[in-house]
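Input/output pair, single chain:
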Amino acid sequence: MPTTDTPPGGAVDVRGLRKTYGGRAVVDGLDLQATAGAVTAVLGPNGAGKTTTIESCEGLRSPDGGTVRVLGLDPVADAVALRPRVGVMLQDGGLPTGVRAMEMLRHVAAMYAAPRDVDGLAERLGLHSFARTTVRRLSGGQRQRLALAAAVVGRPEVVFLDEPSAGMDPQSRHAVWDLVRELRDAGVAVVLTTHLMDEAEDLADVVHVVDHGRVIASGSVPDLLADGSGHGGPSIRFTARRGLDVAALTARLRRGAPDGAWSATETAPGEYAVTGTVEPTALATLTGWLADQDALVGGITVGRRTLEDVFLDLTGRQLR
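Output:
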């Protein structure tokens, strides 16, 4: 079971982490914390440095600079002491391919002094349906469920989950999410990396967005969903000709906003958003302004601002 002697800095404490490959800084002075009893999501585009950061926390890579502490210990120097206290789920690899699924899970459980009930865990994650199938013959989603079971069967105090529901059907996905919430409620520090923004939005207590080797934004999901004026409600999105004068549009919108909260931005070439306290007045003002400019070339949609919107605003829409 998780212990209560979590260090003051948190279950995971990364300070000034640096890692360089071929003269290029992949992680460049990164700071990140994760606490017990919380799900911490680490998000970032491909090549942002999040995988190197997490592998440094798991003891799979040695930092070039800075400090990494997990439960107050160095993941590399204190690997033997940390191994029974930390669970790791890798998205690809890490499972022996020639053994049967349940044989592998029972073998992993036998390495711990007080493992979870293997059959109960297998029932939770639907492993019995492929219990006698070798790992190499499992589907991607089945492998993910087995890897998750292996990561948590030892009752870890910290668990690192890499894309835990990748390749899963909706039923399996929700079973995984329920187990993650159970781990959090039991006091486990869960560190989650995922490209599924709805997964992070649904599960995370704290989100760290990583890009260019640094954390560029951190906070709870509601905090990150709030726009610059503090509003996290609906937004209006529309497609119009490129290069609209968004400053003029913003000024026009704010004439009718008592709190001056509305703001227009060009999120991508020809793609625009209006955020703030979105009301019918804002929509009417927008459509009137666009008609005057003869600028609208696509539809107008009203929807809730999502974590994916925030992620794209922070990291851009260019392919990496």
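Residues 170-185 form the longest helix (16 residues). The chain has a mean pLDDT of 89.
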